[in-house]
TrEMBL record:
Record-given protein name: Threonine ammonia-lyase
Keyword Lyase: yes
Family note: Belongs to the serine/threonine dehydratase family.
Catalysis performed (reactions): L-serine = pyruvate + NH4(+)
Family matches, as InterPro entries: ACT-like_dom_sf (IPR045865), ACT_dom (IPR002912), ACT_ThrD-II-like (IPR044561), Ser/Thr_Dehydratase (IPR050147), Thr_deHydtase_catblc (IPR005789), TrpB-like_PALP (IPR001926), TrpB-like_PALP_sf (IPR036052)
A Pfam cross-reference name: PALP
Signal peptide extent: none
């Protein structure tokens, strides 16, 4: 297929036959807890369980399989610092196709090592994706390689669309599928397959509010694009040329979600469903949490498109979610600077079934009177009601208490 031609539903079906047995057919699971919480009947497609932790393998593999033997011998090149890099590297290595992956010098070392371990030659250059892409184009021309675009390629789009075919085969009749959008390769392929096989199923795209590039492309808007987002996998400044045409014709709606809802969705998937996802993978659930009335009593399919998240970032998100729900709180307590006060405050918290996990005592750096001091106490609680009871009893004993902001 001409990579610059718009793919069709039959191309997705052909891709499904082509990659069968070479790619993991990931589970589609009923999310009973999330369904009960949101009022929607939620089904989750677990693409975070692919070998490289993301759906990108599908499009990369389909692209590699349709290449001529001559092009395979010369090799492929991609510019990526994320899931696309590993998808291309893994399947190029398995097929014996030389692969060059151009990554920005800012790419975390673990991703560089993982990509090299999959057999690819890694070229580190530039400080962002755009600079890496320029170098990739230069190497492509010099060596006669085939460029594997992360989303704006007909074969890549067709490969990504195989997710929808599996969901339609394995699941119930869906009222809607909610799909994350970055450059648009995933939703374009899935929408082609869905509207062909189940035309009454709505296809709803979701983008982070910081990167509304596809929505801008579709409605001609001029929303600001850029910023630090949890969903870096869909943080794309410019939607694809091919993908926007498909999205315009096949996608029913695009919604935007903010960072706080993304954090909550990621935490819920981890805590309630025991599923590890990256920010982009939580976007579908975030769309439901942002507008539960729209999806109430609807059967909805969500794609957990990836699970590659930094452990420290995950830890921070989970702790922030505990704080927002009142299950973890930092209290600032004013008290007289005299023996026994710290013990008394801790005793009151313990008597009310709270667990003190951290204590900070401040004498010097305070604007309180000289005979007063304050302590910061981090308390593990059962929720907002329990936290309120602890604070009430501290105040009843004469202590001034404030909840630190998060």
């Amino acid at each position: 297929m001409d990579a610059a031609r718009l793919p069709a539903a039959q191309d997705v079906r052909a891709a499904a036959e082509r990659i069968a047995g070479r790619i993991k057919r990931t589970p589609l699971v009923h999310a009973e807890k999330l369904s009960a919480f949101t009022g929607a009947d939620i089904w989750l497609k677990l693409e975070n369980l692919q070998y490289t932790g993301a759906f990108k393998e599908r499009g990369a593999l389909n692209k590699l399989l349709v290449m001529s033997e001559e092009d395979k011998k010369r090799g492929v090149i991609a510019a990526s610092a994320g899931n696309h890099a590993q998808g291309v590297a893994r399947h190029a290595g398995a097929l014996g196709v030389p692969a060059v992956i151009v990554m920005p010098v800012t790419t975390p070392d673990v991703k560089v090592r993982q990509t090299r371990a999959l057999g690819a030659e890694v070229v580190l250059t530039g400080h962002d994706f755009d600079e890496a892409k320029v170098e990739a184009a230069k190497i492509e021309k010099e060596r006669g390689l085939t460029f594997v675009h992360p989303f704006d390629d007909a074969d890549v789009i067709a490969g990504q669309g195989t997710i929808a075919l599996e969901m339609l085969e394995d699941g119930p009749d869906f009222d809607a599928m909610i799909v994350p959008i970055g450059g648009g390769g995933l939703i374009a392929g899935m929408a082609l397959a869905t509207k062909d096989a189940a035309p009454d199923t709505q296809v709803v795209g979701v983008q982070t509010a910081l990167f509304p590039s596809m929505l801008n492309a579709i409605d001609g808007g001029h929303r600001d694009t850029g910023g630090s987002t949890l969903a870096e996998g869909i943080a794309v400044k410019d939607a694809g040329a091919l993908t926007r045409e498909i999205v315009r014709e096949t996608v029913d709606d695009i919604v935007l979600v903010d960072e706080r809802i993304l954090e909550r969705a990621l935490s819920m998937l981890m805590m309630e469903q025991k599923l590890l996802v990256e920010g982009a993978g939580a976007a579908g659930l975030a769309a439901i949490l942002a507008d539960p009335a729209r999806f109430k009593d609807k059967t909805v399919g969500l794609v957990l498109c990836g699970g590659n998240i930094d452990a420290r970032l995950l830890s921070m998100i989970l702790m922030r979610d505990l704080a927002r729900s009142g299950r973890l709180a930092r209290l600032r307590v004013q008290l007289l600077d005299m023996p026994g006060q710290l013990v008394r405050v801790a005793s009151i918290i313990a008597e009310n079934d709270g667990n003190v996990t951290d204590v900070g005592h401040h004498r010097t750096y305070s604007d309180l009177p000289a005979k007063m001091t304050c302590m910061d106490v981090t308390v593990d609680t059962q929720g907002e009601e329990h936290l309120g009871r602890i604070i009430q009893n501290l105040r009843k004993e004469g202590y001034e208490v404030e909840i630190a902001s998060y």
